[in-house]
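P.,

For your records, the input lines for the assembly:
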Amino acid sequence: MTVRFAEKELKELIQEASQGEKYPLAKLISELEKPDSFEFRKVLFKELENSGFNGDRSVTIGFTGTPGAGKSSLLGEISTNFLQTVPDKKMAVVAIDPSSHISGGSLLGDRTRLSLPVREKRIFFRSQPSQLELGGLNPYTYHVIRLLRCFFDFIFVETVGIGQNEIEVSKLADLSFLVMVPLGGDQIQFMKSGIMEVPDAFILNKCDEESLARASFHTLSTTLEFLRDIVPGGSIPPIFLTSVKTKKGIQELLDFVLKSKPHPKRSSETKVQIEKWIKTEYGNFGLSFSEKLGNIPQKNYEDWESFFQSEIRKRLL
Amino acid sequence: MEKKDHILYDKTGNPSKEPAWIFRTYAGHTNAKESNELFRKNLAKGQTGLSIAFDLPTQCGYSSDHPIAKPEIGKVGVPINTLEDFRILFDQIPIEEMNTSMTINGTSMWLLSLYVALAEERGEDVSKLQGTTQNDIIKEYLARGTYIFPPEHSIRIIVDMYEYCLKRIPKWNPSNICSYHLQEAGATPVQELAFALATGMAILDAVKERNCFTHEEFEQCVGRISFFVNAGIRFIEEMCKMRAFSDMWEEITKGIYQVKNEKYRRFRYGVQVNSLGLTEEQPENNAWRILIEALGVTLSRDARCRALQLPAWNEALSLPRPWDQQWSLRLQQVLAYETDLLEYPDLFEGSRVVESKVKDLIENANKEIQKIKEMGGAIKAIENGYMKAQLVKSQAERLAKINNDELIIVGKNKWKEGIPSPLTNDPDGGIFKVDPKSAEQTLKVLSDVKTRRDAKKVAETLARLEDDARNGKNLMFASVECAKALVTTGEWADTLRKVFGEYRPSTGVEGQKLNLESDKVANVRSKVEKFQKATGARPKIVVGKPGLDGHSNGAEMIAVSAKHAGFDVIYSGIRLTPEEIVQSAVEENANVIGVSILSGSHVELAEQIFSELKHYKADIPVVFGGIIPQPDFEKLHSIGVKAIFTPKDYDLMDVMDRIIDIVSEKTPVLR
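Structure tokens returned:
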């Protein structure tokens, strides 16, 4: 198959990427986005660990919501504020767009709505086609995020979600937002159907006009109040009112993000992702088998992947 | 005396002849001095009006000394920085006697301010000024791309101009609804009717909302709205379209806006015939196309344009030479003065065929207008991307029809064999090129003005402009003061950018599909699949539209067809810097960069792109597409461009086929 990087070359790429060089990082990401990336991942993440990059302190933020909610433009504003107000931190954005069902190709248009400074090493933007995956994530998004965590303090993941699958991103985010527009009656219905347990916070975007914004805020908070019983701990997630047009609420939102901490137990995230992978590869059969193995202790993803791979194969044969 | 149906009578009942329409050529290039000479020569040749083309920096609100302006100075029109350039441009031209059309939109208020300032400086009676500032910002969002501010602020500027002109320059048309570029962008006659009339209504609604006029004054405003329409090759249909326009405008102004004075309800329009259908192949055939298209808007008296400008036969190759423009002017003169065209009443009155066709167009256009109204009007239909997406769709359908020979274009997809045209055999290759050194003169005038002018006055007038913009005052007054203080185009626009912000509209390509299923598609897709199997990833293309040229059709078509072929496509719309395009390609680790340029700045932009790639140490193949003359191919290749596509390469899958080959060649396993 493809030519992988030689050891020395890989070390160089990692060093350059850690210094904010865009092209080496882009090349590493492309390798992770390939279906047979297992061996490469093993080497890459071991090498990263040896070089002292583990990504434990980095925060992953998920932005999901229906198309047209203005997620990209909002991220654009957040990036601008981030670069101006947090001079010692770095951020990356992964934006996922749907692929065509006919040709498999995709049009990745999120850059249109983000005007990013040129040659700025503190920000990195990458598009990803969804590859027809449900839930708006790409099969390789998780690995790309693991890599980006090694070099950036904040990783924003933007996904298009329609319906229940919107929540997928929350499984790999430390903090996830559901972005909505004012007076979305349908969205309230849809929250009642269960999604409201998932986001850590809500954003009412496109609040260009004050009275409409306030009305929507009250509708939403009343609905959340009503559903308080099913929220673990009974607390209501915060609601942000934002407008890209009037710059309303952007800094507050950014401050909230900056204050958030990475999830204390990344191993639970690894478990979720391993289970997801098993389900994709071996269906319910694999999953039922993996349950018998109990909890996954602290161990890296690739070790677990190869462990399950060989165990399941053994049983299959 | 018995009146005969075939004779045209004047108001007194005497047999008469219609006066000819205004003959214009869309002209301007290099710098103010050269353009002034060109204008004076054209007027001496019998041209009866001026139609000024401005260069892209002037249109987009940048002074010539701005970095983004550099590759574009004087390329597609004349650069105008300060009042000094207008003094040079109109030297020895009596502006009080002229009918001057300015194709300018985002900065129309600024250019009109310069014109007013010049007239006042010359001591002319300003109220006598006659002409048009195009100022149709909606079609800029949709098709041509020289917008600056967001829709609401752009509309405000237009209304300011109506308010100012009504009292001070009553014969000026402050805006002109230009559906010309919609057809160039692929609009069908129905779409052209509907989108243009919906735009007209959006302007009238905004004028009404300002509530600064009496009803009588409002009627006068309605009377000042003019249209600039495209006439295509299906000339019978086009003539019917013009008749439909008149009927519908009458209905709209009378019914919705209660305009009582008949004079103010008249659909007044100028025409430039279609350039989209002109071919690079066998370019001499374009002469016939231009004649036939001109007939559509001159044949029938009830649907005859008030002013006409014809493209030159070689416009699909590059900029026309003065001789080419002269040839087009002569065509108008032959038509108007040698033939008997102007001697008859309307030839098609009572024609059942024409009436039925007009009715059909009206019905369909009304349906479309209804749809736009339900969305909340033209501005909303821009903001939500509806109109743009419709145009991209129509254009894709048109190209698909050319590809599968459903639409015949002589010399292009049929009867392709021919003898090379002797017209292109001149040592200049049959095309005009702007002297790359000519920008120096423009820059010198600009820097002279900057040292000479009163800096304090500049700062004061700009501060007033900013205040007025924030406080909702009419911006014309401050703009004229700025003009007199020798403020530059860039300074004027930057001040307003600061208050209004800059706009990035929808690209219209999301969700587009190509109805193109042929062996070619299958072939390209199989190559894509092979690439994917070998590398584990789909090929990725960054489609870039650098610089100020906003004609994004080509780029959009390539983006849509690349997706159709199975590529992952990154397309971010127009007016990107080469630095931004390369950064996208680097971050995305793209396999190829496709750049589209129509303004003639391909060499400069290629140099910038390759120097930026060098900065990132990125080895990504680059292909170019656009109006690129053959003599420049070698230069582009030497800079590093892998392939060049021109309008000759109209088959989108052929283009994708070459691109996937280039991408695959880069991949060791596929070689």
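Two observations worth noting. Chain A has a mean pLDDT of 83. Chain A touches chain B at residues 1-3, 22-23, 25-27, 29-30, 33-37, 99-100, 102-109, 111-113, 115-116, 118-119, 124-127, 129 (CB under 8 Å).

Regards
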